C-alpha cells in the first residue's frame, strides 16, 4: 500500500478535528475533536514507521512505540478533561464553552453596563439591598439556600 492513502486519511481526520475544536461549543465535543487530531497523528506515526522500516531494513519500530505513548497520553487527557468538564457542569449547570467565559466563583454574567448583578455596588452579594457587605455567615447561609 502506498504512503499517500494513510497520509490523506490522517490529514482529513486532523482537519475534521480542527474544525470541531474551532466550531463546537460543547466541551465534550471539543474533547472528542482533540482525540480525532491525536488519532490522526497516531495514524501518521504508524504509516511512516512502516514506510521507513521497509526502506531502512531496521527492526526497531519507533513510530509504533511513540503511538503507544500517544495513546496513553490521550487516555490521561480525556480522563482529566472529562473530570474537569463534569466539575464545571456541576458548578455552573452548563458545558457550553461560550457561557463559561467567567471562571471565577461567585460572579454571574455581566449585565449591560458591566455590573456584576442586581445590586450595583460591586461587592458580589446579590441580595438586592445596598446596605454594604454582609457578614460571612449571611453569605454562607445565602450560598447554601
Automatic annotation (TrEMBL):
Which Pfam families does the annotation name?
Oxidored_q2
Q: Name one GO molecular function term.
A: quinone binding
Its membrane topology is listed as: Multi-pass membrane protein
What's the EC number here? 7.1.1.-
Transmembrane segments in this chain: where? 6-22, 29-48, 68-89
Task: Write down the NCBIfam families for this protein, in alphabetical order.
Answer: PRK05715.1-2 (NF004320)
| Protein name, as recorded | NADH-quinone oxidoreductase subunit K
Q: Corresponding gene?
A: nuoK
